[in-house]
Amino acid sequence: LEEEKQQKMEEKQQQFQALDDKQRPWSAWSRTNESCVQHTGHDIEQVQELYSMCEQPLINYCSHKNYRHTNSTTTSYLSPMNLLAVTLWYLKHYHSERYIATELNLGRSTVNYLLPEVVDILHSSIPEPYDSTQRKAYYHAKSSRNYALKVQVACDFHYRIVHVSECYKGSVHDITVLRDSGLLEHVNDSVQIIADKGYIGEEYVVTPRKKPRGRELSDEDKSFNRDINSARAAIENINQRLKTYAILGSVYRGAIDDFHKITKIVQVVSALCNMNLNKHPIRKYTT
Question: What range(s) does the DDE Tnp4 domain occupy (predicted)?
């Protein structure tokens, strides 16, 4: 019985693999890079690279879950590649589950179930692009607010990596988020954090100089602030890139108190952003 079960599983996996390039919507989106980028935020090569990272978990998932079209008499399901493509589409454009179900002719409950499952697969399959020793250099931290939550975002200029912390409520002070993020464990006289005025007073955090009451900033202070703002502009560039994924840049529709789920989504989007940074890097701070 075990051998028969294993044989059926292998046949099913081969069936799913054969559908990867033939089944819509991937068969339509993969015709041109422009179409692929428009729908998923990544070109064909990047999507295929992503798929290679999580191919086996996606195949295993499909092997245990057959999805049927709601108005079809034949068995039809999303192939592993389409599971990935549709999830990227969801993260990029944040269409409602009802809209996705209608477009793909699937049941809404099916879409509600598969999207978080594939996000979990992406979260566990995309490798971390750095090790602990690399995290000690070139940190520039900036806190951003998303759907009444905060997430600590740091960009490593040397390695062009985006790091994110856990999510927090918007009422939590920026310095508290920074202290909880773990970044301060890696700073010293030679490795410091550049931040805005919300972090004034924290050791090893370089912030713009405040205008004295009743006086103007000196030319030296203005020059210093320009340098700080120039460095922070790259972090704002990272924030802007993250928010091109509508699931971060628009109003979040999920449970606002499910921090674990939201953190996982932000970390997956950051990993996808890191992939794009390889091809389209931010300018390097040279001041």
Answer: 120-274
